[in-house]
Structures are given as C-alpha cells and as structure tokens.
Specification:
- This protein is mainly beta.
- The protein folds into two domains: 40 residues, no CATH class; 112 residues, Jelly Rolls.
- The protein is 5% helix and 45% strand.
- It has one helix and twelve strands, in the order E-E-E-E-E-E-E-E-E-E-H-E-E.
- The strands form four sheets. Strands 5-12-7-10 form a four-stranded antiparallel beta sheet, with no helix packed on it. The chain has a four-stranded antiparallel beta sheet with strand order 6-11-8-9, with no helix packed on it.
C-alpha cells in the first residue's frame, strides 16, 4: 500500500493565458480556469449490515481541507423494519451531509443535497469523523445491507 500526505495532481500544469490561447507554465499547485491540472478524488466505503437494534452505523475519517464531492448509497438488501432511513453526519443519526435516504428499497441512490449540506461538504476544516447511520422504527430489522461510499478531494 502506498500513502500520500498531499493531494495527487494530474496534468501537465500548463494553462492557456487567456489572451492569445498560448500554453504557458502554471505555478505549482495552480488549478482553475484554463488549467489542465486536476486533483484525484479519493473514496472510502463501508457496509452497514442489519443488527438486532434499531440503529446501525459506520464511521469514516475525512481529512482536514478536503471537499466532499459525493455520497453514493447502494442498498444491496432492503432493511425490513417499519421505516429505515440512512443519514450521514458528524454524530449517529446526524444529517449534516445526507438525510432521508430510503434503506427499504434496493438500488443505487445519489442523495439530493440541501444548500446547508452542500456548504458542509465544501468546508471540512479539520480531520472530521462522519457517521453513516441506518435508523429503523418499531421493530429491529432481520435483513438489510447498505454500502456507503464517501467521495472526496483532498485539497
């Protein structure tokens, strides 16, 4: 396994100067309009399986200065208690990043984010633990499996 302590950037580092379209050399670390340098996205995935409880969760550690790009939820086996929803936040059941994903229907879900959630995704200022939680009501589930993938860009 190889680890990196800085973002991996891909591209030549050249950009068009905006005046005559000529390629010029970019300053180290420069990204943005006209630059062909990009940052590689990183993913973390974990599975939440049913348990004899109404709440099941998994933890992710997102590094300081990262930008969360997306959260992908794959409901492999539907949870079967009365109501099961998935959320992602800073605490168990928190909704700072994702809220209200139905864990009772199988398939891939790309959550719809609120303005507040998008702001939270763009402002990870310290190493942050995120917790993905499946919460049921009334009875404990007897089946259920969800894979949660957090996609982020280390800046």
């Amino acid at each position: 396994m190889t680890t990196f302590q800085t973002p991996i950037r891909i591209g030549s580092g050249a950009f068009k100067d905006g005046f005559n379209g000529a390629m010029t050399s970019a300053a180290p670390g420069l990204t943005g309009s006209g630059c062909d340098l990009g940052i590689v996205n990183v993913t973390q995935r974990a599975t939440i399986n049913f348990a004899a409880a109404l709440v099941q969760d998994v933890k992710f550690l997102v590094p300081a200065s990262a930008t969360i790009v997306d959260v992908i939820v794959d409901v492999i086996t539907a949870f079967d208690s009365t109501a099961n929803t998935l959320s992602v936040g800073r605490t168990t059941g928190g909704t700072e990043i994702v809220s209200g994903v139905n864990a009772k229907a199988t398939g891939r879900v790309r959550p719809t984010f609120t303005t507040t959630q998008l702001t939270n995704m763009n402002s990870v200022t310290t190493n942050t633990t995120l917790i993905a939680t499946v919460t049921g009501t009334v009875t404990n589930p007897t089946v259920g499996s969800v894979i949660v993938t957090i996609v982020y860009a280390p800046n």
